[in-house]
Amino acid sequence: MNTPIIMETNIQEVGKKLAILRERNEKRVHIDIGDGLFSDMFSIAPADLQELDLSGLEIDLHLLVDDPTEWIEESVALSPKRLIGQIERMGSQANYIENVLSYGIVAGLALKIETPIEEIEAEVLDKCGVILLLAVPAGSSGSKFDERVLPKIAELRKVYHGSILIDGGINKDTSKKVMASGGTETGANSAYWRGEM
Description:
about 30% helix; globular; TIM Barrel; about 200 residues
């Protein structure tokens, strides 16, 4: 399963892409949120998205931000299906997961390509609805798929039985490699909007 990704700094561009998704009868969308601190990516914020019609879509919000826990309240106002936070500058993974779950939203964790699987706290694995592994530098678009993610998928699959989402450098070929390594879903930005997925 592949989900289209929106990563934009301009709310009007987000609106245009949402209209395209509706025309294509897409039911899911993954929206990247960047604060310009965690990575160079500075995007629209969850509060900006409140002016758009998000009805009928299952939304993933991916928080590529300093301390994702501080962004939970603003994010849950959008009623996302899943709220996925990067672990690298997260205080307590258990606190983040419990906080998101308390709103009835699926909680997810995300790791940069350089972050080892061992950085995930073992006690949160059974409460985590999705784990996202980046296959490109955080906050980048159009970067080449980093094959170091493939053994990470296999390693994660040994200890985690939930959904493994791979984000970055996804096209038809890399998507097949992800699934063969034990991944369950992908997110595509550049390739999707170029009509290649």
